[in-house]
Write a structure and sequence with these properties.
By secondary structure, the protein is α/β, with parallel strands linked by helices. It contains 11 helices and 13 strands. The protein has a 6-stranded mixed sheet with strand order 2-3-1-4-7-8, with helices on both faces.
Length: 340
């Protein structure tokens, strides 16, 4: 039996997908349950919504009872999360303020950022979460911050390109990350060697190394005409690192910064097309590269994954509407029509 979902339900479902906090997600789920048509065709969907509501309420109750509060934990949102780390006055807050509506404090004095401040930056038709982290010093990271860095998808190591000690800032940041076993991801690591290293790491937990994509952002390009040369010199000293000079004040290269973070997230956008209807090109699903048709079906609804019959796909270098199997690898920009 078809579900015949109403516009009110679809509006509530959209609100759920776009929610950025547990409270907003719970409110949207409750609205979905209130507006979903009550008949045999939606019984499984109703049960799934009720189950998700129960889990979220239990999680919120557990959080309220918890004695420990981690001020450095930032729940991931959008297509992925990039943390900006650097020394005092490196320019992290100015970048986040320029690219998002985050309530960051941009001041000339040091330590104006005391806790992580997240903001959502628009990149084409998706959002990327940027997190302005408190500064590190030669005394180390603030307690709790290494855990937040490990949980992020991308690290932006921000250094002041107009400062005389820009190399020292970079050296210190890399050393502090290495001390916490957080290393720049190797772009062309051998897959078998990486898997073996991972197995060995699991055998000795104290030797676990977190590899994260890392981009060195050289700021205040507007204050120093030779900043590209600074970035080039740093790259000669660290040929395995990637450098990008930007200016939050003039906006120069901020679009390149956001585009590069998107690439480092290593995700793909896939657009859903209900059978017989036009695709929804305003709300793409974002999945990790290497995801399949079955992964998207599961992302839409778990019942879709269980009852998936076949799918049709549209995209670059594809026959329009060709039928693809459930293990077909999706590419960025694909349009998929799920049949259950």
């Amino acid at each position: 039996m078809p579900a015949n979902l109403t516009p009110d339900y679809q509006k509530a479902e959209t609100a759920y997908r776009e929610a950025t906090s547990p409270e907003e997600k719970l409110a949207a789920l409750e609205q979905m349950l209130a507006t979903i048509p009550k008949h045999k065709g939606t019984e499984k969907m109703q049960a799934d919504i009720k189950s998700r509501i129960a889990r979220m309420r239990a999680a919120q109750a557990s959080t309220k009872k918890a004695k420990h509060f981690d001020p450095y934990h930032v729940e991931r949102s959008g297509a992925g999360q990039a943390v900006l780390i650097g020394m005092p006055n490196a320019g992290k807050s100015a970048i986040v303020a320029a690219l998002s509506n985050a309530p960051v404090v941009v001041e000339s004095y040091p330590f104006s950022t005391h806790v992580p401040v997240p903001g959502m930056a628009n990149y084409e038709d998706v959002q990327i979460q940027l997190v302005d982290m408190p500064p590190y010093t030669d005394q180390g990271f603030p307690p709790g911050m290494p855990g937040a860095i490990r949980n992020a998808d991308v690290i932006c190591l921000v250094i002041d390109g107009s400062a005389a000690d820009s190399l020292d800032q970079l050296d210190l940041g890399l050393r502090l990350l290495e001390d916490r076993k957080i290393m720049p991801a190797r772009p062309h690591a051998d897959a078998k060697a990486e898997e073996q290293a991972s197995d060995e790491a699991l055998a000795e937990q104290d030797q676990v190394v977190w590899e994260k994509p890392l981009l060195v952002v050289v700021t205040k390009r507007d204050l120093f005409a030779g900043q590209d040369e600074v970035a080039a010199t740093l790259h000669e000293l660290y040929p395995d690192l990637e450098f990008l000079a930007v200016s939050a004040k003039s906006g120069e290269n901020l679009d390149r910064l956001l585009a590069r973070v998107w690439q480092l997230l290593d995700v793909v956008r896939v657009y859903a097309k209900p059978p017989g209807q036009k695709p929804d090109m305003d709300r793409p699903f974002t999945l990790k590269s290497g995801s399949t048709v079955l992964d998207l079906a599961r992302e839409i609804h778990r019942d879709f994954a269980e009852h998936l019959k076949f799918a049709r796909i549209w995209g670059e270098n594809k026959y329009a509407g060709q039928q693809v199997p459930r293990d077909y690898l999706l590419e960025d920009g694909d349009i998929l029509e799920i049949h259950v």
